[in-house]
Sequence to fold (237 residues):
Amino acid sequence: MLAPDGRVILISGANRGIGRAIAELLHMEGYSLSLGGRDLTSLKAMSAGWDAARIHIARYDARDWASQRAWVDAAAARFGRIDGLVNNAGMHSAMTLRMPDEAELDAIWAVNCKGPLNLIHCALSHLEASGAGRIVNVSSMSGKRVRNDHIAYNMTKHAMIALNHAARRIAWDKGVRATALCPSFVRTDMTAASTALAPGAMTQPDDLARLIATVIALPNNAAIAELLVNCRLEDTL
Fold:
């Protein structure tokens, strides 16, 4: 297992839900973190009391590619290295084929696909220099199968699986390993209105954070391409 000492991980959308659970656990385990998001006040409040020498906060807007380059450059300048990237920020959409909305489709494509793609691009040289760079792309079980009519969300999560495999291929020889995390229902704000499962029956963010911490710490010769995590039985998965 890779020791966390000195290793720097970028996390998008770290102020709540899965991203917050990841940040809390990785900080507790000794990683240095650069947290990116649009709500900087929330990120600062969340990390108040943490080891200030191991925390960096920057603006990240999935629709603003300039903010992504600025974030990566600032994190590299602060810590002198980048060893991991967690593409966690995302959005949901209930858009269906019967009621398409071009503006909504453009928005979710920008947040769930284009932003993560560019963030990987911006961080890639640093991850390669690490020799053991790690990328975790938070996709969904909706990126592996279609069980509802939310076409825009399903499309973008399938696309993130393709992005993940592209990232695995392009820098494998330089030690970069990419993993797509594919959870089903997770107890977060995104599922608060869902009636499909009771909140207690859903996967908990803390458990996903533990899985991601494990993936980040695995050596180069124990890579996991896709990690499917379900809270209910599905016959084909």
